[in-house]
Amino acid sequence: MNCFQRLIFIACAFFSLFAYPGEPADLVNPFIGTTNYGTTNPGPVLPNGMMSVSPFNVMGSNKNKFDKDKQWWSTPYSNVNRFLTGFSHVNLSGVGCPEAGSLLLMATSGDLNVNYTEYGSEYTSETATPGYYSNILTKYNIKAEVSATSRSSIARFTFPEGEANIILNLGEGLTNESGAWMRRVSDTEVEGMKLLGSFCYNPQAVFPIYFVMRVNKNPKAAGYWKMQREMGVEAQWDETSGKRKLYTRYDRDIAGDDIGAFFMYDMTGGESVEVQIGVSFVSTKNARLNLETEQPGFDFEKVKRDARKAWNDALSKVIPEGGSKDQQVIFYTSLYHALIHPNVLNDVNGEYPEMEGNEIRKTDSARYTVFSLWDTYRNVHQLLTLLYPEKQLNMVRSIVNMYKEGGWLPRWELYSRETLTMEGDPAIPVLVDSWMKGLRDFDVEAAYNAMYKSAATPGKDNFIRPDIDDYIARGYIPLREEFDNSVSHALEYYIADNALSKFAKALGKDDDANRFYSQSLNYRKYYSTEYGVFRPILPDGEFLSPFNPKQGENFEPVHGFHEGSSWNYSFMVPHDVEGLIKMHGGKQKFVKKLQEVFDDGHYDPTNEPNISYPYLFSYLKGEEWRTQVITRELLAKHFKNSPDGLPGNDDTGTMSAWAVFTMMGLYPDNATDPSYTFTTPVFDKLTITLDAYRYNSHTIEIESVRPSDKAILIDRIEVDGKRWKNHRITHDELVKAKRIVFYLKERR
User: Fold this and answer.
1) Which residues does 465 contact at the CB level (< 8 Å), separation at least 6?
2) What is the pLDDT of residues 618-671, one digit of tens each?
3) How far is the C-alpha of 24 from the C-alpha of 336, rounded, in Å?
4) Where are the alpha helices (DSSP H) in 254-299?
5) CB of 417 within 8 A of CB of 197?
6) Please, are residues 87 and 55 in contact by the beta-carbon 8 Å criterion?
């Protein structure tokens, strides 16, 4: 080795200490959030894809710690469970209510058994990367692998020698709905429908999912099963009473609450069967079209390879350098989780089911679904606007078209049904924020009419704000039932109205702007000087008494607040932080009260209303350091490279988006304003590549200059070589910046 070669060798060795080789997908751990009620799953899905596949291990055995039939459970998978009954198709990620997670596909060997409590298996050797999952079913020594395209899946089961079975179970899943039908198309194909819905207490939010399933080998035998009703005297002559009846010579349609299909084989050792499933929310015809378009033939390796490429392309919008490997894994996994929902709803031909109706409509772009807006209006849509603006624009168009079709903006929409889950009018800040950041190619007039309708229609006719009459007449919503959510509702309406006032002002509707702005400041009516927090108000105008501002923690029943205490809501006024400070008696009193949230354990990292609280300190000159210390502490405590690495429900990516922004060093803490608050970045350098069409592929470099690992406080910030005067930056300023440098220090 000559001197030059030796220098190159030393340089490469040195570099390898600080860089993590491989692709972004290599730094995603899909098992993060699969315990600690994170409700994520490790199965394959494409960015914002309709199809997702998950190992289903939450029923059928006492070997599992968590069982969907024995407790409230909202995810198809738990990392601590060990008994698998199949792979579910079309799953939700990070939600708090059970839904979907049906079309259970399973492989077994030996004699055919269609009872999931008996055909289920323990498993080992789990592997998961973006777009791929595999395990070994130990009961059968079968290797199971699954991957996905946007609207279809593929599974590959590798069997030992002997009898083998492929089973499709339509009777089970996470959904609370029942009922399905199926028909045999050929020896290797079935098609059908499964009824889903009733998400989060809304029994009328029901919808069908259509499917086509194919196997790549002709079976030696195939058939259906159906759970038979318990019979009376007829049971003397029918041994199938109360049992699953096998249909081995019937090949037409079958229907019922608990039905399924099976395919039987004789296999040589190491032989595989591949299974494709295409889905649609329109028809079996479209499910087949989706499958044939996205998978014209059986090719498991190609689907797996294409899925990985899709994730690498999406994740590479942001490239972090430095930090620990665990921090890079947490960052990329958080970005991965934030890109699962919302999902594409339309089929490859553009067709989709209209909102709250029976017609099939068509789009020439993309129609999205699964809008958990009470969660995602706070940060997920801001992340999409920054990194994936064309997706966000189509989501905005989808939201406006939901109004055109169903008459109202959505609150928590699921597959074209409104579930009315959670609070407020959260579509308004999403639309306004997108418009203020330059995404304006949508029907603005229809959007404004939709916002005005929900903000002004009397309660008896108001689908989104049924309690609006008191809100308008009194400026607040009184507590009319013991455990209503009156304060939570009003606080969300204030935020929505403030966003609407800014939209009205920009459109030249000054009277509306003044009206909604004035309404948005009525949050002050809830402030109790006795406690220094928001307090429910009774119909007679008096504060609720007795009152405990801690009541509501850990999901206990509480007067006036939803899934949280008064502490979790009392600083949720992002649109008027200056007024909030003044209301508390000025800077010092405000800082002291806000610091109590963190010092006394009132902060709930899983509760959306308070997730922006750490950033409020940055509104006060000289107190910004608190934001920097607290955000770093929260990241270290609640986000880990392990199955329990989320603080709780990911809420369709909201908690993960908090981590992404916070690790980048900026956060959109005010959904009514197109801006971000700075905090200390985690990485030495971060390169953001912006959208080619919207931002001309402009790159932003965010660098941290730190004298030591203990230097987590911001000394000064420079943007394109000029010292930045505060700790906020507008969206327009951010996307025009080329280089942002944080100079860090150890002490205040």
Assistant:
1) 425, 454, 455, 457, 459, 471, 489, 493
2) 999 999 999 999 999 999 999 999 999 999 999 999 999 999 999 999 999 999
3) 10
4) 284-294
5) yes
6) yes
